[in-house]
Amino acid sequence: MKIAFIEPEYKHEGYTCNQKFLDAYTDKKKHAGLYNNANLGLLTLAAQVPTDWEIQYIHTPIEKIDYNEQFDIVALGGMTRQANEIYRIIDKFKTQGVYTVMGGIHATVCHEEAASHAHTVIVGEGEDSFPRFLEDFSSGAPKSCYGPSNEIDLMSSPLPRYDLITGDFQNYPVQTTRGCPRNCKFCAATRIYGKSYRHKTSEQVVQEIQMINSVRRNPFILFVDDNMFIHKAFSRELLQKLIPLDIRFQALSDISIGEDQELLELMYKAGCKELFIGLESPTSHDIAYVQHNGWKANQTKHYSQLIRNIQDHGIRIYGSFILGFDNHTQDHIARIKEFVWENKILGQFSILTPFPGTEFYDEFKQKGRLREDKSWYHYNLYDCVIHHPNFSARELEDAIIEIFEFTFSDENYARVVRRQIEGVKNMEYKKKRV
Ligand code: SF4
C-alpha cells in the first residue's frame, strides 16, 4: 500500500491583505519562518501507518504534488484557511480514482462539508480513529466518518514521524499538552480539545526532540500547545529535562506565566527565546466580552508589569492582538502601537475572525455579520470577513498592515532586541552569583 500525507498551501488568487502581508514579511529575518513548519497532526497520524506501507509526506508550500503517482490513499488536514485548497486537491485525486481522507480542525468543525469532498472524514483527535480507518480500508470496508472519539490519552500518542520531512524547515513543531481551561469565545481550542488539560510524559517530549535533532542540526523548536504552562508541576519537570538538550524554542502561553518566577527561570535555562502570548488588546473594556468569566479582561491592568518580568528573564514577547471588536475605532490603532512601543514587544495583529467551531462564529452568523463574498481562504486573520460598525473591511485590513509596519520597523525591532539583551545579561549575572 502507498499513502501520501499532504499539507496544503495557503494560497489564493487576486489581492488579499493576507497576501500583501506575506509578501512583505515572510522573507524578512524578523519574521522568518512564518507558516514554515511541518504539519504535526499529519506526522502523528503517519506514525500509525503499518511499517510495510510506503509513506510520503508532501508539504505543498515547498513541494509539488505529482498527481500521476499511484497512491492508494491520500490524507489531508489543515486549518480553515486551507480548506478550499484541500478540497481542490481531494477532488483532483478522486478523479484519478485515489481514496481520500480528510482530518484536522476544519474537518472537525465542518464535517458535513468535508464529507461532500473526501471519501472519509476523521472528526476530532485522530490517534484512536485513524488506525481503525486503516484497518477497515485494508479489509475493504472503510467508513465515511470516524470519531469524534473520547479525549485521547496523550501519553499513548505515537512519536510523530519527523523523519518523513524532506523540506528544509527552520522550525519544528512539538506538542506537549492539549486543551485550555480559559474558553475564549473566538478560539476553538476548548471546544475541540475540551476543558480538561492533558499532557504527554516529559520522556515522550524529550524523545521527540531527540528525533528532531537526528534529522536537523540546531533546529528551532515551536511548542505548538495552545497554552503550554497551565500544569505547573508538569511544566517544571519538563523544563528541567529540556535543559541538557541545549535547544532554542518558542512557546504559547497566557500572560499569567509572568507571575511565576521559578518557571521563568527554568524557561530561560531550557532555551526559551520567545513567548507568544494572547494579549488581545491593551485595554480591558473591549476584551471583556471574549470570555464569560472575564479572566483576560482582569489581566490587562497587570500586562506591563508581567511583560517586564518575562523580559527580565531574557525572553522576548510576541503578543497577539485582535483588531475589530465592536467598540474599536481609529483610536484603538494608535493605542496598540503605543502599547507595542512602550512595552518593547513584537506581535501578531489580526482582524477579528469568527472561525467555524467558535462561539463568535455562531453569533456573527446568526446576526448576518459574516461577509458572504468571502471563502474559507479569507479566514486567515488578515483578510476581513466581518461587517464592522466603525470600519470598512479595507480600513481594517490597512490598519493591520500599518500596525505590522510599525511593529517591525527597524526602530521598534532594535528596542525589542536591546530589551532582550538586557534580560539575558540579567539572567547571566544571576547565574554567576549563585
Ligand atoms: S485564546 Fe488562548 S487562552 Fe483563550 S481559549 Fe484559546 S488557547 Fe485558551
Q: CATH first level of the largest domain: which class?
A: Alpha Beta
Considering the protein shown, what is the CATH homologous superfamily of the largest domain? tm_1862 like domain
Proportion of residues in helical segments: 25-40%
Write down the Rg: 22 Å
Strand line-up across the major sheet: 2-1-3-4-5-6
Strand content: 15-25%
> What is the domain tally?
2
Give the overall form.
globular
Helix/strand structural class: alpha/beta
According to DSSP, the number of beta strands is 14
The mean pLDDT is 91
CATH topology of the largest domain: pyruvate-formate lyase- activating enzyme
Q: Low-confidence spans: pLDDT under 50, at least 5 residues?
A: 29-34
Output the number of helix runs: 17
CATH architecture heading of the largest domain: Alpha-Beta Horseshoe
Intertermini distance: 58 Å
Q: Give the names of the bound compounds.
A: iron/sulfur cluster
Largest sheet: 6 strands, parallel
